[in-house]
């Protein structure tokens, strides 16, 4: 159902108006049909009352469409039939009395001072009425019953007080609903063309600038570049929105430029003293103290690199390049194998996609290093699932408590005591890997490996990237 539901603002608003118009026209049709039915019933009841009271001749149209009858006799205009007076009971077998029609006709007769001893109203097909068919056939001189004999008519039988005979009147009750339905459908189509068509033009003037603004927001989110800002257009509110967005883009771009300048200064002002300090500690005679100092400096330098990388991941300078992802993954695993680390490359599928290889390599190293640090081993695989490249990195470590998995993705977050500073890192590895995945339009998720129903036997890091 959702597949056929319009997703754009223009489509949804037009659908809402079309449905509202459909409901309104349906209610109007119901009211019109009810009013027309009431008018027909009242007119027919008055005609029957007139015949029963005055005993006049009444008109009945004979529509003889037999092609064998030539000239003007093809369609006889009117034939005269007298009101029937009979001692036979007016109601035929298997016919139902029309209680509403009897009540309406009784009220009309009462207004004329006539209180019926018995009054019967029913609906009958013309072809089933012997009296009408006998006279019509004699005067029409036809051998095959014409189409009008399949129509209905109202039959009213009145027996007055003190009389034994019934006065029986008949009135044709043709159904003209089809023509009214056709006019209503035509009216609805005209309303749809005028109202929905005019509204579509108006909404298009509103939604076209909004669609352009949406595209611009998506472009700016991906590139952070202010080139290509759109000109304000459309209604005044939309113009103000576009102008405000353009100003916001300029402010954001200025802040990002200031951030890059600040990060460059921080990197220069901190790394230079750290390098000098690293040289000076070589003069420390105590080997143990010297190694501790060097490890501290190395830890600070590594944390500084992570912080700078995390700050710059939103504005990468290197372009997207088509890369064989399986080859990239194999090269990263080979680096760890060359260092003797227990990293295993599992099943992979060859697939190429546009990505920033340097950044993705950094994300893979962080995830594999985490697996080795807390799980001692790492198993890496690459599969294609639902139009995405899925990189899974599994370990055999203690995992992460379910309530802390989301927090582990935040900056400077480390888990329980086993994940302390001694194990290395400042809690930025997962955050940086997630940011790099999102930079490529993908995602990073963590989940525990469960065995024996509830026991955690490791952690799975799943990095998903959309394929081209």
Give short descriptive properties of this protein:
10 helices; single chain; alpha+beta; four-stranded antiparallel β-sheet; 468 residues; five-stranded mixed β-sheet; Heat Shock Protein 90; 17% strand; 3 domains
CATH architecture designation of the largest domain: 2-Layer Sandwich
The third-level CATH topology of the largest domain is Heat Shock Protein 90
**Average pLDDT for all residues:** 80
Strand-residue proportion: 15-25%
Order of helices and strands: HEEEHEHEEHHHEHEEHEEHHEE
What portion of residues is helical? Answer: 40-55%
Task: Order the strands across the largest sheet as they lie in space.
Answer: 8-10-11-13-12
In the CATH scheme, the class of the largest domain would be: Alpha Beta
InterPro entries: 2C_sensor_his_kinase (IPR050980), HAMP_dom (IPR003660), HATPase_C_sf (IPR036890), HATPase_dom (IPR003594), His_kinase_dom (IPR005467), HisK_dim/P_dom (IPR003661), HisK_dim/P_sf (IPR036097), Sig_transdc_His_kin-like_C (IPR004358)
Membrane topology: Multi-pass membrane protein
Catalytic activity: ATP + protein L-histidine = ADP + protein N-phospho-L-histidine
GO molecular function: ATP binding; phosphorelay sensor kinase activity
Give a topology summary.
Layout: H1 9-54, E1 57-60, E2 79-82, E3 84-86, H2 99-111, E4 118-125, H3 130-140, E5 152-159, E6 166-172, H4 177-223, H5 236-280, H6 287-312, E7 321-324, H7 325-338, E8 343-345, E9 352-355, H8 357-375, E10 378-385, E11 388-394, H9 405-408, H10 429-439, E12 443-451, E13 455-466
Parallel strand pairs: 8-10
Antiparallel strand pairs: 1-2, 3-6, 4-5, 5-6, 7-9, 10-11, 11-13, 12-13
Helix pairs in contact: 1-2, 1-4, 4-5, 5-6, 8-10
Catalytic activity: ATP + protein L-histidine = ADP + protein N-phospho-L-histidine
Main location: membrane
Pfam families: HATPase_c
């Amino acid at each position: 159902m959702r597949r056929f539901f319009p997703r754009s603002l223009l489509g949804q608003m037009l659908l809402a108006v079309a449905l509202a118009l459909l409901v309104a026209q349906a209610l109007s049709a119901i009211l019109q049909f009810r009013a027309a039915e009431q008018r027909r019933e009242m007119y027919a009841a008055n005609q029957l009352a007139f015949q029963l009271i005055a005993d006049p001749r009444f008109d009945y149209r004979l529509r003889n469409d037999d092609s064998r009858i030539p000239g003007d006799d093809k369609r006889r205009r009117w034939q005269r039939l007298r009101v029937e007076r009979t001692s036979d009971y007016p109601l035929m077998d298997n016919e139902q009395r029309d209680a509403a029609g009897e009540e309406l006709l009784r009220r009309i007769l009462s207004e004329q001072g006539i209180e019926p001893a018995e009054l019967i109203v029913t609906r009958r097909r013309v072809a089933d009425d012997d009296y009408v068919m006998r006279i019509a056939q004699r005067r029409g001189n036809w051998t095959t019953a014409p189409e009008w004999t399949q129509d209905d008519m109202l039959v009213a039988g009145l027996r007055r007080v003190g009389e034994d005979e019934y006065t029986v009147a008949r009135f044709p009750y043709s159904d003209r609903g089809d023509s009214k339905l056709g006019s209503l459908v035509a009216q609805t189509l005209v309303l749809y063309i005028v109202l929905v068509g005019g509204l579509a033009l108006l909404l298009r003037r509103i939604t076209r600038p909004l669609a352009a603004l949406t595209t611009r927001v998506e472009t700016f989110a991906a590139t952070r570049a202010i080139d290509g800002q759109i000109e304000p257009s459309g209604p005044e509110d939309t113009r103000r929105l576009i102008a405000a967005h353009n100003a916001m883009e300029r402010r954001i771009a200025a802040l990002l430029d200031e951030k890059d300048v600040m990060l460059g200064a921080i990197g220069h002002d901190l790394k230079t003293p750290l390098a000098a300090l690293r040289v000076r500690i070589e003069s420390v005679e105590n080997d143990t103290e010297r190694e501790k100092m060097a490890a501290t400096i190395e830890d600070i330098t590594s944390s500084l690199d992570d912080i700078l990388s995390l700050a710059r991941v939103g504005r990468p300078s290197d372009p997207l390049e088509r890369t064989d992802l399986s080859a990239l993954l194999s090269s990263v695993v080979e680096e760890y194998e060359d260092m003797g680390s227990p990293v295993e490359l599992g099943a992979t599928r060859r697939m190429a996609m546009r990505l920033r290889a340097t950044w993705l390599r950094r994300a893979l190293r962080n995830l594999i290093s985490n697996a080795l640090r807390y799980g001692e081993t790492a198993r890496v695989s690459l599969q294609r699932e639902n139009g995405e490249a899925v990189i899974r990195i599994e370990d055999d470590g203690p995992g992460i408590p379910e309530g802390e998995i989301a927090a582990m993705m935040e900056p400077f977050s480390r888990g329980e005591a086993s994940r302390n500073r001694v194990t290395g890192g400042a809690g930025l590895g997962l955050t940086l890997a997630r940011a790099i995945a999102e930079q490529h339009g993908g995602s990073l998720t963590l989940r525990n490996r469960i065995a024996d129903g509830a026991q955690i036997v490791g952690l799975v890091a799943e990095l998903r990237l959309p394929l081209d």
